[in-house]
Specification:
Elements: E1 13-17, H1 24-34, E2 39-41, H2 42-50, H3 53-78, E3 84-86, H4 95-104, E4 105-110, H5 114-121, H6 132-149, E5 152-154, H7 157-164, E6 167-169, H8 173-179, E7 185-189, E8 207-210, H9 219-228, E9 236-241, H10 243-255, E10 261-266, H11 269-275, E11 280-285, E12 288-295, E13 300-303, H12 313-330, H13 339-356, H14 371-380, H15 387-402, H16 407-413, H17 422-430, E14 442-447, E15 450-455, H18 459-467
Helix pairs in contact: 1-7, 2-3, 3-4, 7-13, 9-10, 10-11, 11-12, 11-13, 12-13, 12-15, 12-16, 14-15, 14-17, 15-18
This protein binds nicotinamide-adenine-dinucleotide.
């Protein structure tokens, strides 16, 4: 199966452009490691082939250097396996390079201000960083060019990863979507229209209200949208709401006219750190949740942390379970960050995983840490137990089976054993859709930041871990 091309850098090279001193090599290396892609630093490649760049400049002149650079960039962009590329600051001067970037890559402008850039490179011996005045002049000349070739912009590893999947985390993101909504159809959770941040949509934009919560994820609701939408092939859906709204609206976008574009505006913490990212869309059947669906990535995800101001504490807690899960997978205490940074870091981590494995053929499975047990408990409670509370318990079980401390889960999420029928929970665990022949395949942690997936454990151990989550 060929990986889908786009949105963003999916199935394509991710090229970092920007001025010298922006940190393209360091950031590119970090992004490549997290997205498990090869990394090509074109300056390093030139030095490998021809020796130090300052000497090359001096002996052969800038013209010869630029010709060599153009060839090295073209060779890197011609490779089939999507990589992360860090391009030299002047690479985009070449018309041919700019054309190749447009065809073969998603380019992100790594931002830096001129003072920081100068402070970083002034003593580096780089040929074009010899005197401050010409350095500043060059910076002013090049900025417009980077803006012209870039598909996105960022200033660190997380920003690059988010941008690479067209995920924008910033205050005011909703206003930008509203400003560009003409011609789109809005699909939104019916409860949001009364909230303080609910916007005035442009005239002529139809707003389709979906029932709040899990009832949105039904064939009846999606069928009604199919009938009502009236969009053309070039139309797009703007979905505003939590994970349930996004799953239903995204599935509608995947199927209507065999697929139209959609923009996700997640309004819950679960939505912002998880459900809006990665293109899994779907609805529920009487037999179970998420049993019908499609991979259909949103063309843009507008994450506006301001929208969380109205979120009830209970809903916030559901999202914190995914935050703790992400932090354990990433090996970073993301739950300790201020809210906006926390959301950005979690979203970026999920982007990295999705970039490396969009269809969950391997590594993406790690995102199910704690979820196998969670699904079993939810099913046994007949979906009375909220998903996040179930995930918090599931994380406890996964950590115990991993031989890892559980204190973070206990302190941040404080899960309480749940009263459900033990046999029903055990039976549900055996039915897990990711299991094999009735045996669940688990995601465990060798250490924080070092997950393994597809792990089978002796039945007695798994059963004991499940039993510990259930109140007698
Ligand atoms: N597709 C994916 O990758 C993915 C990932 C995780 C979860 N999910 C799905 O997401 C769903 C859960 O999402 P959720 O937790 O966001 O639930 P949700 O969409 O039901 O929202 C929870 C509640 O919060 C309310 N709400 C939403 N935004 C609000 C706001 N800003 N202020 C006040 N109230 C607000 C909603 O009306 C609802 O009552 C599940 O169906 C799950 O299967 C999907």
């Amino acid at each position: 199966v060929v990986a889908p091309i786009g949105p963003g850098a999916l199935g394509r090279h991710l090229a970092l452009v920007g001025f010298m001193g922006a940190g393209k090599s360091t950031v590119g290396h970090g992004a490549a490691r997290l997205a498990e892609r090869p990394f090509v630093d074109t300056d390093a490649e030139i030095e490998r082939l021809r020796g130090p760049i300052p000497a090359l400049f001096e002996q052969r002149g800038e013209g010869e250097f630029r010709r060599l650079e153009e060839a090295v960039v073209a060779e890197a962009l011609a490779r089939d396996e999507p990589a992360v590329l860090a391009l030299g600051g002047g690479a985009v001067l070449s018309e041919r390079t700019r054309a190749l970037l447009r065809r073969r890559a998603f380019a992100v402008h790594l931002l830096v201000d001129v003072d920081t850039a100068w402070a970083r490179v002034r003593r580096s011996g780089r040929p074009l960083a010899q005197d401050e005045e010409s350095f500043r002049r060059l910076f002013a000349e090049r900025e417009a060019l980077y803006g012209e070739v870039a598909d996105g912009e960022a200033d660190d590893v997380d920003g690059v990863l988010a941008s690479a999947l067209c995920v924008h985390v910033r205050r005011g993101a909703l206003a930008a979507v509203v400003g560009a909504a003409k011609g789109a159809a809005v699909v939104a959770d019916e409860r949001l229209a009364g909230l303080s941040w609910w916007p005035e949509w442009p005239e002529g934009v139809a707003v389709h209200a979906l029932p709040s919560g899990e009832p949105a994820k039904s064939l009846a609701v999606v069928g009604r949208l199919w009938d009502e939408l009236g969009l053309g092939r070039d139309g797009r859906i703007v979905a505003v709401g939590g994970g349930t709204t996004l799953d239903a609206a995204g599935f509608t976008a995947a199927t209507y006219l065999r697929g139209v574009d959609w923009i996700a505006v997640p309004t819950t913490l679960v939505g912002q750190v998880d459900a809006a990212i990665g293109g899994k869309t779907g609805i529920d059947l009487a037999k179970g949740k998420n049993l019908v669906g499609a991979f259909h990535l949103p063309a843009e995800v507008a994450v506006d942390p301001d929208l969380l101001a109205t979120l009830p504490e209970r809903e916030r807690r559901q999202g914190m379970a995914e935050v703790v899960k992400t932090g354990l997978l990433a090996g970073r205490p993301l739950w300790e960050l201020p809210e906006e940074e926390m959301v950005r870091a979690c979203a970026a981590f999920k982007c990295a995983i999705v970039l490396s494995d969009p269809h969950e053929r391997g590594r993406r499975a790690i995102l199910n840490l704690g979820h196998t047990f969670a699904h079993a408990l939810e099913a046994a409670s007949e979906y009375e137990l909220p998903h996040g509370d179930a995930v918090a318990l599931g994380l406890l079980a996964a950590l115990r089976l991993s031989g890892q401390p559980t204190d973070v889960v206990e302190e941040v999420l404080a899960p309480r054993p749940v009263e459900v029928d033990r046999e029903a929970a055990w039976a549900a665990l055996g039915r897990d859709k990711k299991g094999r022949a009735g045996r669940p395949r688990l995601v465990l942690l060798r250490a924080p930041g070092d997950p393994e997936w597809g792990v089978e454990r002796p039945e007695a151990e798994t059963r004991a871990a499940l039993d510990e989550l259930i109140a007698s």
